[in-house]
Amino acid sequence: MANDGSDDDEQAPYPVGYRKPPPEHRFKPGETGNPRGRPKKSRNLNTLLEAELDRPVFIKEHGRHLRIAKREAIVKRLVTDAINGDHRTLALLLKAGRVTPQPEPIDFDIGSDADLEAYLQRALAARRKEALDEPVEADAEEAPPDVDVSE
């Protein structure tokens, strides 16, 4: 006979087996299976640097004590050094200004002049409708009286 961990003298009140642990190994009421919780995610260099640059530092400026972020204090120091004639700092600031991403210019590709004219007529008709609170139909063939479409 196979030994399943139970004695013949002792009769278990329920079968012990797969997904049925013995009572002494079950979670007690109010207890969790993961008491310490999920481990915190390890932080990489960028997150550590961001956290440190966001921490406050106290500085004295114009006789006043200020509490500012470390990144702001660094920028203030760089600008002050550049103004005082430090050429390396000035070059660094100018380079950083060029590296800062500028917004891309928006390219409005409306298409042909006929498409543009039709769009403008619809827009003007919608404006008139809003202003007069009346439905105004835009005629695709005729231009609005205040728009010169001659070439």
UniProtKB/TrEMBL annotation:
Domain DUF5681 residue range list: 24-97
Lineage: superkingdom: Bacteria
UniProt-listed Pfam families: DUF5681
Biased amino acid composition, Acidic residues: 1-11, 133-151
Cited InterPro entries: DUF5681 (IPR043736)
Region (Disordered): 1-43, 130-151
Name the UniProt record assigns to this protein: DUF5681 domain-containing protein
Native species: Bosea rubneri
